Amino acid sequence: MKEEDLSSQKELTREASRILLSVAESSPDEQSKALAAWAAGDSKRIAAASRAERVWSASAGTREAKPKKGKTGATVAGTLSVLLLLWFYPALERFILSDVSTGQEVRLDVPLAPGVTADLDAGTSLAFDLEGNDLVVRLRDGAAYFNATPDSGISVQVTADDVEVLVTGTRFAVESDGDSVNVAVEKGAVLVVASAEAGVTVEAGRSWRDGVLGRTDPLSVAAWREGWLDVEGAALERVANQLDRRFAGTIIFSDRQLAAASVTGRYRLDDPIAALRTAAAAHGGRVVMATPWVALVMPE
């Protein structure tokens, strides 16, 4: 199975699981109707709904064994099934399809070719292939900081989703969270090519996200290497995706408006749940630990 198909499955399964969480107190028939309405006849969504229902059904005994404690209690119990789903597909992506992958740790100075290294953030997976002087890197998930020595003679191409980053010598970072790709340059310059766009040159102190050029402090490029997460105008859910890479379980949103709230700030990465609580609280949100491995973000 292609890596892009696995990534799509993972995201659709997350969506289907959220649908089930939103109707946790409803009857099985009503839950199925809610999933059918969400799928709207789309074959990929139908498959994702089926996967979510199978795990949901398998955990039915666990949910029914617990006394009802209102909406929050039902939602917390329901998240047990989501845990299995969200661990299974990322595991396939990282360990079957990748040459290098990380768990909750950060790996520094991973050699890819003579004169080319990469630092990998937590929860990152990539594959690479060197043919002659041409290095092709596929970032499947997470974030990586690349250091290509200008006189190495190696031509580097980094791909993430449908975005290509071309360079001969520079220091830059690429991040992919399944929904968007971000490129930030610390030194030198790179050429970013997206599927529907002409190439865009991104120089030191600049960034590129989903076709939009911006500015960035070169000192904050890949700040995660120093244990920091620097955020400016990012959706809370995107922040959660970055924090999730250092959390042993998974993070789920119960409210889409809260997930879309804009976040700006600097957060320590050594305690991802504390950072998530701080970011969510600024928008009237709270974090409930459904289990030690499931963090549910919801409005106060």
Which value, in Å, is the CA radius of gyration? Answer: 20 Å
| Largest β-sheet summary | 13 strands, mixed
Give me the strand/helix succession: HHHHHEEEEEEEEEEEEEEHEHEHEE
* Alpha-beta classification: alpha+beta
In round numbers, the mean pLDDT is 82
Q: Total number of helical segments?
A: 8
How much helical structure, as a percent, in the residues?
A: 25-40%
Report the principal-axis shape: globular
Quick synopsis:
The chain is of the alpha+beta class and 300 residues long. The chain has helices spanning 3-22, 28-39, 43-58, 60-65, 70-95, 236-244, 256-259, 272-281, and strands spanning 100-101, 107-113, 116-120, 125-131, 134-148, 155-160, 163-167, 170-176, 181-187, 189-194, 200-203, 206-209, 212-215, 228-235, 250-253, 262-268, 285-291, 294-299.
Describe the structure.
About 13% of the residues have low confidence. This protein is globular. The chain is α+β, with helices and mostly antiparallel strands and 300 residues long. Strands 1, 2, 3, 4, 5, 6, 7, 8, 9, 10, 11, 12 and 13 form a 13-stranded mixed beta sheet that branches. Helix 2 runs antiparallel to helix 3, helix 3 crosses helix 5 and helix 6 runs antiparallel to helix 8. It has eight helices and 18 strands.
Helix/strand layout:
Layout: H1 3-22, H2 28-39, H3 43-58, H4 60-65, H5 70-95, E1 100-101, E2 107-113, E3 116-120, E4 125-131, E5 134-148, E6 155-160, E7 163-167, E8 170-176, E9 181-187, E10 189-194, E11 200-203, E12 206-209, E13 212-215, E14 228-235, H6 236-244, E15 250-253, H7 256-259, E16 262-268, H8 272-281, E17 285-291, E18 294-299
Parallel strand pairs: 5-6, 15-18
Antiparallel strand pairs: 1-4, 2-3, 3-5, 4-5, 5-8, 6-7, 7-10, 8-9, 9-12, 10-11, 12-13, 14-16, 17-18
Helix pairs in contact: 1-3, 1-5, 2-3, 3-5, 6-8
